[in-house]
Structure formats: structure tokens, C-alpha cells
Amino acid sequence: MHKQQHAAMAGQAASSNKSTATEAQLHRLKHKLRARPHHTIELRHCGIHHPAGRVQDLKAQGFVIEVARVTAVDAEGFAHAGVALYTLVSEPVEVAQ
Q1: Sign of the CA dihedral running 17, 29, 38, 69
Q2: Who is most buried in 3, 28, 40, 75, counting CB within 10 A?
């Protein structure tokens, strides 16, 4: 496969709502956290495979996200203690140039 074809396919995957590309996961994470706090199990269910890593990515971009530990119940009814609950506190202010 040529590099241009591979790059085009990667771009299509990143824009898909089913993409596991990092940028797509970050987009979904921002969308979810803007609506309400979400915990790790919920975020994994919507295709964010390593929520803690993606939260760290957003923090590095200037997002302020609080983390609390909660007990969450998964889809099969199992309770999980110590699950991270992420709450978006603020977003970075873009500086006009």
C-alpha cells in the first residue's frame, strides 16, 4: 500500500465515530465529559480503551479534570470499587493571534 493511501485511510478512521485512533478517542472523551462526569467503565464502553491515558493527554493540553474514586456497576451487574470518575472542571482558553 502506498503511503498516500495509508494516510488517507488513517484520516478516514480518525474521523469515524467507531475509530480507535487517539484523536478520535480524545474527541469522544471531550464530548462525554462536557455533558457530565463519566467513569472508566462507561468510557471504555464508548471506545475509549485507556481512559486514564486519554485524560492525561487532555490535561497536557490544558484541560482541568478532577478524578474521584467510586464504586461502579458494569453491564453484567458486577460492582467494581475504586473506579475513576472523571469530571471536567475547565477547558483551556484559546489565545487569539
Answers
A1: positive
A2: 40
**Helix ranges, 16-50 (H):** 22-35, 40-45
Integer Cα distance of 37 and 55 in angstroms:
12
Are 12 and 44 within 8 A, CB to CB? no
Q: How far apart are CA 82 and CA 44, in angstroms?
A: 16
pLDDT in tens, 51-91: 999 999 999 999 999 999 999 999 999 999 999 999 999 99
* Dihedral of alpha carbons 15, 18, 20, 24, sign: positive
Residues 3-25 pLDDT 10s:
444 444 444 444 457 898 999 99
Residues 6+ apart with CB under 8 A from 57: 22, 26
* d(C-alpha 84, C-alpha 97), whole Å: 37
